[in-house]
Amino acid sequence: MRIDLHTHSNASDGTDTPAELVRNAAAAGLDVVALTDHDTTRGHAEALKALAGLDTGLTLVTGAELSCRTDGVSLHMLAYLFDADEPQLLRERELVRDDRVPRARAMVAKLRELGVPITWEQVARIAGDGSVGRPHIASALVELGVVGSVDEAFTAQWLSDHGRVHVPRHELDPFDAIRLVKAAGGVTVIAHPLAVTRGAVVAEAALVRLAEAGLDGIEVDHMNHDEPTRARLRGLAAELGLLTTGSSDYHGSRKTVRLGEYSTDPEIYGEIVRRASGAFPVPGTGGHA
Description:
Helix content: 25-40%
Largest sheet: 8 strands, mixed
């Protein structure tokens, strides 16, 4: 089985619509794909509708990537198969999402102060109906020729945490995120925890505390983890009794990574499904969860 548990649509900062993402996942030969947009489940309904219209064995896992911060460092929490209507978790996702527009506007203002001819209208056009975020600003910088790629925008010179134009945002405490996702019947996995190319990363001591608080797993196989980092994380996960996943973190044309380029072991996927009670994987025609 080919299982990709971390993808994004244009409901947040990907370039595929949720329907396109489902169709592309089926065309790529995936057996399971998780839709994990940033702090929103808005793309789920469209993705499920697209899946229902396909003659495919693809299974869709619903989820989200929650924006968190601990010890002054941002981290992302993948949440799978939770009840999207659970009131407390829904309220926290809305607080994070509602902070995105004023934050993005403030970053645009900082860029203009630095002489970059970026406009809010340009960023809003790129974001479309998605939840505006740094990748949309990065795409605007690519359009303007300021940087050569989205990844080049995420440096201390520009958009990375503690970069020249960084603006703080509302983020969940990851311990609260674990509690809220668990209460909503979901499963939690820390996304790319040691992706140092993205900026500061959490200390291993924080991962130990999160495991003690009920964290289910760590995303190990990811484009921003080199082989020594993956080995280090696998060892840590074994010590802490955590699941290990692999995922593309697909963003459509915004990144070069392909759907299914990194994947999760079927036994790990089965354990994630077993632990969930808030929602269940949805199989396409002829598929099985």
